[in-house]
Amino acid sequence: ASPALSHRVFIVAVYNNQAYLAPGLDLDYQYQVPSPLDSASTFSASTLGGDQQISPDYHDISPRPAKRQKLGLPKPAKGTKNKSMPDVGQSAEAAVAAANKPKRVRTGCLTCRERHLKCDEGLPDCQNCRKSSRICKRGVRLNFIDTTVKSPPMISPTEDWKVKFQDESRDIASEYKGGLARYSHLDQTITPPREQLLEFSTRPMIIDPLMSVETNALPPIQHSAGPYSDGGLSVKQEIAPSRGTSRHHSLSGSSESFLVPPSTSYSNPPEQTLTQPNETRDYLNSPEEVLFMQVFVEEVGLWMDSMDSMKHFSRLLPFHSLGEPMLLNAFLACGARHLALVNPVYHEDKALYYYDTATTQLLRSLQNPDRDTVICATTAVILNVYEIMSERAMQRMNHIAGARALIKECGWSARSTGIGAACFWLNVGMELLSCLHFNWQVAWDPDQWGVDMDFQQETASGQEEVWVHRMLYIVGKIANFRASIPRFQEASPHDEQIRLQTRYAEWKRLKALCDSWNSNIPRTMHPMAYLYPAQTSSKSAFPEVWLIKRATIVGRLFYHTAMCLLPQINPIMSKDTKEMHDMQLSHAHQICGITAHVKDRGVASVALRSLAIAAECLVERREQEEVLDIFEKIRKETGWKVGFLHKELKLKWGWQEQDAAQQQMAAQQNSLAQFFPSTTQASATSLPPAPPQPPPRAMPSGILNPLLKTADFSLPNHPYQQYYQPPNLHQHHQFAHNYM
């Protein structure tokens, strides 16, 4: 084919013996496909807009004979008709007839359908209806083929037969903008929203845990690990089922107590009656609420107040929650969650209900500019604690950034007192433990905390919490120093040396801060007793370090953690040198000695992360096994999930290689047993070595804490996007004045 001719022929397709022209060529006739031309047959294509001769290789796309004379085209040569081609005249007429046949419409009116007429689908009325003056009915008519109706099965009601109505109208309305506003006159009741209501910006990952028959009385079963752990409670009083209605979210009309395994799921609990914000209860009068509050005060509040001398969360705030339903539900959620962790009899459904209820009340409060910002911030901090206690923490991290943003909105810092200081130190402490795990930089720069770092010899006791705050600042600086280790060298050797010297000077400053802290702390923060392993009867591989006060234990654990991390991040000396190795091993033994013999469950949050850092320095198999036993003891006491720590430590210790070698040896013995069956019976049943599993995907390290980098309402992507309204600046906070 000639390339020059390709743009002259305006034929776009040939289908069913019909040739169709391009849209730009408007001719009033159709082309037919004749037989191919022979080598001597050509005709001019000037009519089609060109002066070229069509090559014989092309088919002669010529008009009908009736049109040839009109267009001035030459007659086709004789004998060029292909006898094998079908007669296209008849097929063309059939195609025209098929095209003119009326098609079945799908959008016609129902009136024409009833009259069995062809509807022209005119709007608003079709032509048939206009001519006959009929109503042009529109719509879809369904014809049901099978209309058999059977009587449904029915059980005759008995005396115990009850009917409960589940109202999900608020649940559905909450998913639409302004939907809940239509129920403002019915605010006496509330249904917690679905979890999808919280559309906060979080990414799925695993967070470091501070760390998932009807009877009328609970059997008192004692357990050495704790009053609420595996198997039962130490609450020896019989609690009868509640049939009344509590003013604070007790099950209305329930015929059984939640202290026993429920017969039905609480995934859709009935509506609860709320206490009005200005109504204060004298005391808790529901057995369920009493139980959950006791668990919170005696278990969860212990470690929440580990850096607070006034013990706000376990001693003061529970009384104030009697007049604050939002705060009370947050406390009950944490208590119910802890109970579900340590005792399989209890389920997480009740904890989820209290959590959803408190979250709903918090989100509604954030829409009110006249809200009490102190109550909102305190509630968000407690709900964040609940999320950390959850089995799948990061799937529920809805309040971690919100709590931080509300703390900043209240202006709380290290200089604050009362409830502001308690919430601040709890929040930054939880973030620091996570950053130590993931090797992140602390989102809130420790230099902006406002910590008083004037180290003077402390002679008076009772200021242990102040020194704990100072050590927390030092550990935060060390965490940032570790996460900012350069991954690449400078292009110039001179610049690289300058950077090393700068980082080494910072390292020595952090080391001097740790030494100064240890030298100036009060005597009450030093060990009361110290016994070497050979002096004890506990058969422990670690020394017994006796510290009396809880704040002292937390402070010493942070101190030894810092001294374990410093040798690992020395920019000049390797951690394998004798000086650095002895330094980290000595402080690792101190951490293990404290956690192995401590009986205070309120320090478990810090002990978990400190013990994990110290365990990486251990090399003896006996010490490593004892550390795993300590983790298991903490799991039984607190219920926190520590399985991932076992896997991480075994991987760093090289236990997988040792286990693989043992499995390979067992496989060899198994193969030998096939030839010598009498050697051993156990070898014949040994399992083949398991294939090595790929290591889990590591979290990105050396970055700013991604969970809290937008935790500020002044940023565009702040938390609580759909609910937050700026508060009035002159709002009076009676709550803050009562607990300062």
Automatic annotation (TrEMBL):
Gene3D superfamilies per UniProt: Zn(2)-C6 fungal-type DNA-binding domain
The species this protein was found in: Hyphodiscus hymeniophilus
One term under GO cellular component: nucleus
Entries under InterPro entries matching the protein: Fun_TF, Zn2-C6_fun-type_DNA-bd_sf, Zn2Cys6_DnaBD
Subcellular localization(s) per the UniProt record: Nucleus
Every Zn(2)-C6 fungal-type domain range: 108-138
The organism's place on the tree of life at top rank: Eukaryota
Pro residues bias locations: 688-698
Main localization category: nucleus
Keywords: Nucleus
PROSITE patterns linked: ZN2_CY6_FUNGAL_1 (PS00463), ZN2_CY6_FUNGAL_2 (PS50048)
Family annotation (Pfam families): Fungal_trans_2, Zn_clus
Region Disordered, residue ranges: 43-90, 241-280, 680-703
Compositionally biased residues, Polar residues: 43-55, 262-278
One biological process term in Gene Ontology: positive regulation of transcription by RNA polymerase II
Single Gene Ontology MF annotation: DNA-binding transcription factor activity, RNA polymerase II-specific
Name the record gives this protein: Zinc finger transcription factor 37
